Amino acid sequence: MTLTTYDLAAEAGAILSRLGVPAAIWKEGTLAVRSPVTGEALGSAQEVGPAEATKAIDAAHKAFLEWRLVPAPKRGELIRLLGEELRAAKSELGRLVSIEAGKITSEGLGEVQEMIDICDFAVGLSRQLYGLTIATERADHRMMETWHPLGVVGIISAFNFPVAVWSWNAALALVAGNSIVWKPSEKTPLTAIASHAIFEKALKRYVEAGYTAPDGLSTLLIGGAAVGEALVDHPKVPLVSATGSTRMGRAVGPKLAGRFARAILELGGNNAAIVTPSANLDLTLRGVAFAAMGTAGQRCTSLRRLFVHESVYDTLVPRLKKAYGSVPVGNPLEAGTLVGPLIDEAAFNGMQKALEEAKAAGGSVSGGERLLANEAANAFYVRPAIVEMPEQVGPVVEETFAPILYVIKYSNFDDALELNNAVPQGLSSSIFTNDVREAEAFTSARGSDCGIANVNIGPSGAEIGGAFGGEKETGGGRESGSDAWKAYMRRATNTINYGSSLPLAQGVKFDV
Ligand code: NAD
């Protein structure tokens, strides 16, 4: 089927209607929504302004005051039901992700699977929000930590993981006893509306089962940066988890710091992989191809820089170029497609600009040209580009959110490590090697400086069980698994005297 034969507006509308979303919400608003698959309009979502956002945050604060009193395992029951509703809606929501964000089918479904997985994780967590008991120097005393809910958690998300990022934050924040307010990307409001409708189904079942949940527990605010700013500026939002570009983080971070609010910043990446002489090149080829071309290079963890040892360069790089020349680019809704469209024209222009700059810096470019423009003039498909660079300069040290892989030859392992770390971003990284010394060095204190450092898998993608996030300009935030839940709670240290004297710490005497 050609791109023009799809009626994606009708399909998106049918999905939203089956999820019980009134047409007015996505059809009669002011925010134009388009599909990157065909470039055509999908609908017009209803937006809120900053004043309405502020009112919604006030309501969310009231909800928090009640929700924090619900025992955590009972809060977990709501997330268990959300997981069930997501399982039931997986194919529909996954399809909508593909329609609105342009992901290939398996990645659209995979994104919803991540939502389900984090719900399962959070349900278990709801019985494990425990602190330590700590040895005290005083007789008849006990010292311990308790973890308490924080308040309203603001969630700002990017277009490229339009629903999973919300769920990573929402599932943890809610079991932790917070209320949540979500400002999704203005490029992907329909998937947000759908996710919220799914959440409301879970909430309805929760209440029908006899549990208590306050109004305003979870709010969706559709709008642009000004609505995000309302979240960032509101004094009753003690934590904002913001995912997006470093440019956005630079605006949001200092404002939150200015009012001593917490931030989880999940910002841009410029991820690298090192291919060493001992690497299994078949495995490397597949790992690199998926990490660099998957999601059309529009993952924060996409592989953008590849350092190849001189002894394997002439074997690996021609094979990679062949894969780049033949990878199926096209309609992400069709089986067999591996690379879908860029999100919009601005992304296409950004890619072309970076390729021009790379050429000016001595790079040799293969690919990068626009495809399928004759079928869909407003959709932006490209052949992924591979650029052999003489050194790490110019656009190589920046994040261009498009499928460009810069390849640089190296001869010394320590130089490759230095190149890996010599960019402002610090999200993800990997090494392909069968040499245990190189693998261990890469993951050691003198190795990769990123939040994610992998061995024999690419840098892109992550499992929800681990803490996710990166260093330097990536913002330093961690969310999802491990102990990331602690960021959504406040810790109190309690000392309890169960004796009848009052010994002071450090031997201090104060007898009155
Ligand atoms: P973006 O920065 O343009 O927008 C992200 C979100 O921030 C949107 O909801 C937007 O409305 C909001 N926003 C923008 N300016 C704001 C402001 N001043 N105050 C409050 N909110 C504001 O990003 P994008 O183009 O949607 O997404 C791509 C970027 O996101 C890439 O840089 C990518 O690396 C990054 N990203 C990072 C992660 C991660 O976990 N590190 C995950 C996904 C995407």
From TrEMBL:
Q: Which Gene3D superfamilies match?
A: Aldehyde Dehydrogenase, Chain A, domain 1, Aldehyde Dehydrogenase, Chain A, domain 2
CDD domains named among the record's database cross-references: ALDH_F7_AASADH (cd07130)
Keywords recorded for this protein, A-Z: NAD, Oxidoreductase
**Known EC number:** 1.2.1.3
Q: Which residues form the active site?
A: E266
Against Pfam families, the record matches this protein to:
Aldedh
Q: Name one GO molecular function term.
A: aldehyde dehydrogenase (NAD+) activity
Residue ranges constituting the Aldehyde dehydrogenase domain according to the UniProt record: 29-491
Q: Which family is annotated?
A: Belongs to the aldehyde dehydrogenase family.
Quaternary context: Homotetramer.
Q: What is this protein called?
A: aldehyde dehydrogenase (NAD(+))
Organism listed in the record: Allorhizobium borbori
List the taxonomic lineage. Answer: Bacteria, Pseudomonadati, Pseudomonadota, Alphaproteobacteria, Hyphomicrobiales
